[in-house]
Amino acid sequence: MKSIDTLIEQRYSPNHFAEKPVSQDHLHQLFEAARHAPSSYNEQPWRFIYATHDQPEAYRQLLYCINESNRTWAQQAPILMLSVAKKHFSKNEKPNRHAWHDTGTAVGFLLLKATELDLYSHQMAGFFPDKAREVLDIPDEYDPVAMIAIGYLGKEERPNKPRKAVSEFAFSGTWPK
Ligand SMILES: Cc1cc2nc3c(=O)[nH]c(=O)nc-3n(C[C@H](O)[C@H](O)[C@H](O)COP(=O)(O)O)c2cc1C
Predict the structure, then answer these.
(1) Does the CB atom of residue 163 touch ligand 1 within 6 A?
(2) 13 lines ligand 1 (CB under 6 A)
(3) pLDDT tens digits, one per residue of 24-81
(4) Atom of ligand 1 nearest to the CA of 158
(5) To 10 degrees, the CA torsion angle through 12, 51, 107, 45?
(6) 52 near 21, Cβ under 8 Å?
(7) Sign of torsion, CA 26 31 35 37?
(8) Domain ranges in the chain?
(9) How many Å apart are CA 103 and CA 21, to the nearest integer?
(10) Which of the four CATH numbers 1.10.10.10, 3.40.109.10, 3.40.50.1220, 3.40.50.1820 does domain 4-156 have?
């Protein structure tokens, strides 16, 4: 079993995916990981609409919602999925201010599980939420959040993505002066 440090280190967002399909069992394991993510009041506001290359019509619909520059590489990925957030709490219909936050957490769990399975993922803000809502029949009380391409690595080309120093985002006590 890979350590959490290995998973964090191994993960990156590739622009090339292999043709190799992903098994239904692996796909299920991804959602099983998302299922166990924490959420405000345990609302679990995340939803996923997904399609594989084996579902050409459904896959094409998801692809159609992705902008052109992302589509060029995303269409190689054997799995496309859209994360969706439920905007209000089910128990009282009050706005859930943390719906996107919790959806992102669930995606984080899913991505780390993907990494354990040697799968790679590339998330996209570059898609058309209104088109997705229409084409994929997403109800008004849900927000399309992010598109995600998932598959095995096509070619290794880890780009240099500089990270902030911890001191730039972690503040002890109060906001820095
Ligand atoms: C919510 C979200 C939206 C993103 N949107 C895009 C996108 O539209 N196109 C793209 O090429 N990469 C996109 N990315 C990938 C980021 O650019 C990438 O995660 C970041 O540069 C860090 O690189 P790494 O994931 O390889 O570590 C997105 C990532 C996230 C989390």
Answers:
(1) no
(2) yes
(3) 999 999 999 999 999 999 999 999 999 999 999 999 999 999 999 999 999 999 999 9
(4) 26
(5) 170
(6) yes
(7) positive
(8) 4-156
(9) 26
(10) 3.40.109.10
Cα 138 vs. chain centroid, distance in angstroms? 17
DSSP 3-state assignment of 173? coil
Residue-wise pLDDT tens digits, 108-140? 999 999 999 999 999 999 999 999 999 999 999
Whether residue 162 is predicted with pLDDT greater than 90 in this model: the reply is yes
- Centroid of ligand 1 to alpha carbon of 55 (angstroms): 25
Question: Is the CA virtual torsion 104, 50, 140, 129 positive or negative?
Answer: positive
- Dihedral over Cα of 6, 17, 77, 73: its sign: positive
pLDDT-derived band at 145 (thresholds 50, 70, 90) equals very high
Question: Is the minimum distance from the CB of 74 to ligand 1 under 6 angstroms?
Answer: no
Give the SS3 label for residue 115.
Answer: helix
Contact 74, 154 (CB under 8 A): no
Q: What is d(CA 96, CA 114) in angstroms, rounded to the nearest whole number?
A: 28
